[in-house]
Amino acid sequence: RKEYVDLYVNYVFNESVQTSYQDFMRGFLRGCPAKSWKIFLPVELQVVLQGHTTVDWHLLEKNVIYKQYNKSDQTIKDFWTVFHKLSEEKKKMFLGFLSGSDRIPGYQMEGFTFTIVDPQEKNPDELLPTASTCSLRFFLPR
Length: 142
Known about the structure:
Blueprint: H1 2-15, H2 18-31, H3 34-37, H4 42-50, H5 57-62, E1 65-67, H6 74-85, H7 88-99, E2 115-117, E3 130-132, E4 137-139
Parallel strand pairs: 1-2, 2-4
Antiparallel strand pairs: 3-4
């Protein structure tokens, strides 16, 4: 029985997917040559490919650029007060709203920046916050 189970597990996890895996590996190596990624430990490679799963939210706040706002404006102070009271899940949802992903790219943790912009509309009470994911701009009405 043990031999049967061992052979079956080997077939399911190794032999049956060998062709698909080889196709995947060929494609992966075309985009990411082996010389480049073999310098990484598996955990490091996972961060490079998937992004950081944990975020230093205070570092993120520190790296924000403000347009038509100052860090000392009451709207900005209120935003960060509310933001830091959010759950981790809600903060990641905001990051997804802002950038299209709930993770920060692996190579950018310290250098990840986004811009908070005042859309400067005549009646800001009628506007909702919006984001431009391509340029990492968060439009926050006053």
